[in-house]
Write a structure and sequence with these properties.
4-stranded antiparallel beta sheet, about 35% helix, Jelly Rolls, 21 helices, about 625 residues
């Protein structure tokens, strides 16, 4: 085949003489006699044919003639370049001399000379399938996508389009909505920030060949915070935003991988918003605006896809997090190994701060439950800030001290005297009770314990409503703020007689059985109050004397915690770890040692009455 003959073919126009010579050598000459089938409908299209001499008929699946092609015509061009099966059949109308271009030969050539593939794609009007091998290899070389399997990289490569950008041309401008993911194939670009009064000469970031860019604006759905200018003539592969979102839904690993490898400092717009949000959080509320500005300049934007962990229980605490968009769930396993939710952290709330400031390892798991954008302050940046701005260190020290003090005093006297059970205890007795109390939060609909399970705690309701459902399923009743539940079972050492469900969101205080036994032995007034409970009738729905009454549908007193954006009595860093419940056992196995002794004495007395007393009264003798 001659270079001139190939140049006359529209698909190969624009190729240089050297590029045409590279293509000519990978063609194979082939001859077919008149009437021979060249390819059939639905066969895989593995070769492109260029007719040199003779004529070929194209037939539809029914055998009807669609067209007759002569010298200089291409056969199967669209199917070959798209990687599809033939949708027509081809038959030699006369003896035919052709040149065949195998798919494998073209793919090998484009690995060495990708620019040929770019020109063929431009002439064809879309990216040719044979260029995908090269693009997959290029994507696999990037730090962000290198760990992805080829089954994910293939559809990405197939959807990317080449874009020529002349020197000093603008690709996108700061403030524009993210429109694509970019891979720089050739040339270099600069990402230039918009000058501000605080930073009149911002430093540009150079993007070199082989680099992905535009990733974070696409992930976070935020406008570009820089403008991209070509320093020299560039060839850029683009993946449109709509295609990216479709692929990331089909392959969640794509978004996860990009999210793990994409970070940036906050844009000017985000910094302004971050100052306002930090000023509204208790941790930073006392800081001057200048100190807040210093902090937000160190914040890092991070995207975490839905379902992706942010950190795990036991991880070293290396950062604190503020939710910019989305929602984060904090969970921990109880002693039975059951994963329970501690809190959900919403927009404007922070988490992970106290473990960072105290140096503790993470006490919970943090997981994004929706696609979430976080503002992250890393330990190294915080340490530098404290060195440069002593006021920040002082404010954080005060916050830690206040938080620790708050934890110690969280069960204050006024809070506990709301419960009739504890009203008449002295201050010293209340402090001793508080040392055994724990806190928990339950969401509406959650089960607190199950009927028949061993009684292991006494519960006090701070806010919300509890519904109690008997084991026989007949009827139910509710208890509300200031009341207690689970009392009869634990005081009589019997399994729970009802299942307990959160009718609404609940804030609970509870005391486990070992602590309750210790308090009864040390505090006679508490033991007396508890004994009064057992003396009350056990009618269903009867509440502890003096407590407010609730019916189904009543609304409890609610209060909001701005620290993590949901109804609660605790901060995300102060949320107690969940308490386990054991499975049920037989009633005899759940009796205490003294209960078993009493049962034996009763049985002995009954035997004595039946064997000795009753016969003597009836006049029998032995």
């Amino acid at each position: 085949m001659s270079v001139e003959f190939l140049r006359a073919t529209p698909l190969f126009q624009g190729l240089s003489d050297e590029e045409l010579r590279e293509v000519v050598v990978i063609f194979r000459e082939e001859k077919q006699r008149g009437g021979a089938a060249i390819f059939r409908s639905d066969e895989t299209c593995n070769e492109l044919y260029l007719i040199r001499n003779g004529f070929v008929r194209l037939l539809d699946p029914d055998g009807s003639v669609l067209a007759t092609l002569g010298p200089g015509s291409l056969l199967g061009e669209a199917e070959f370049l798209r990687g599809l099966a033939h949708n027509t059949s081809a038959m030699a109308a006369t003896d035919v001399q052709m040149w065949a271009l195998p798919d494998a030969n073209l793919r090998t050539l484009l690995q060495r000379h990708f620019n040929i593939g770019v020109k063929l794609s431009q002439n064809f009007g879309e990216q040719i399938a044979q260029l995908e091998d090269y693009l997959v290899a290029q994507l696999a070389k990037t730090r962000a996508l290198g760990e992805l399997p080829h089954k994910v990289l293939w559809p990405v490569a197939r959807s990317m389009q080449p874009h020529q950008l002349a020197r000093e041309s603008l690709l996108y401008q700061a403030g524009e909505q993210a429109e694509a993911l970019f891979l720089l194939e050739r040339g270099s670009l600069e990402l230039r920030q918009t000058p501000t009064p605080e930073n009149p000469s911002p430093k540009a970031v150079l993007v070199e060949s082989g680099s992905l860019f535009g990733v974070l604006p696409l992930l976070t759905n935020k406008p570009y915070d820089t403008s991209a200018y070509a320093v020299e003539d560039c060839l850029i592969w683009t993946l449109p935003a709509a295609t990216f979102y479709s692929l990331s839904s089909q392959f969640p690993l794509l978004r996860r991988t990009l999210g793990r490898h994409s970070r940036s400092r906050l844009s000017v717009a985000d910094q302004t918003q971050a100052v306002v949000r930090l000023a509204q959080t208790p941790l930073f509320a006392q800081l001057e605006p200048a100190n807040l500005h210093a902090i937000v300049q160190r914040l890092v934007l991070q995207h975490v896809p839905a379902g992706e962990p942010i950190y795990r229980l036991g991880d070293a605490s290396d950062a604190m997090f503020l939710v910019d968009q989305g929602e984060v769930e904090l969970t921990a396993e109880n002693e039975s190994g059951v994963l329970q939710e501690l809190a959900r952290v919403g927009v404007g709330s922070f988490f992970g701060a106290m473990s960072l400031l105290t140096g503790e390892d993470r006490l919970e798991n943090a997981t994004a439950i929706r696609n979430t954008n976080l503002w992250v302050l890393y330990r190294t940046d915080l340490q530098e800030l404290v060195g440069l701005h002593p006021a920040i260190g002082s404010a954080l020290d005060q916050a830690v001290s206040a938080r620790i003090s708050g934890r110690q005093d969280s069960m204050d006297e006024g809070r506990l005297r709301r419960f009739p059970l504890l009203t008449d205890l002295s201050s010293q007795e209340l402090r001793e009770v508080a040392s055994h109390l724990r806190q928990a939060h339950s969401r509406a609909g959650e089960q607190i314990y199950q009927a028949g399970a061993p009684s292991d705690a006494l519960y006090l309701i701070e806010s919300g409503i509890v519904r109690l459902q008997p084991i026989n399923g007949s009827g139910s009743w509710t208890r509300g703020e200031g009341e207690i539940f689970g009392e009869r079972a634990i005081l009589s050492d019997e399994p729970y007689g009802q299942s307990a469900f959160a009718e609404t969101d609940l804030d609970l205080i509870y005391i486990e059985q070992p602590g309750l036994d210790a308090l009864k032995s040390r505090l006679p007034s508490l033991a007396f109050n508890l004994s009064r409970i057992l003396s009350y009738p056990a009618a269903e729905g009867e509440a502890f004397a003096g407590a407010p009454q609730y019916r189904a549908g009543d609304t409890p007193v609610e209060y909001a915690d701005a620290d993590y954006g949901r109804q609660s009595s605790m901060h995300a860093d102060d949320i107690p770890r969940p308490r386990p419940h054991r499975d049920g056992a037989s009633w005899l196995g759940n009796l205490s040692a003294w209960g078993k002794v009493r049962l034996i004495l009763v049985l002995i007395l009954l035997l004595y009455l039946v064997i000795v007393v009753v016969p003597s009264l009836l006049g029998f003798s032995f």
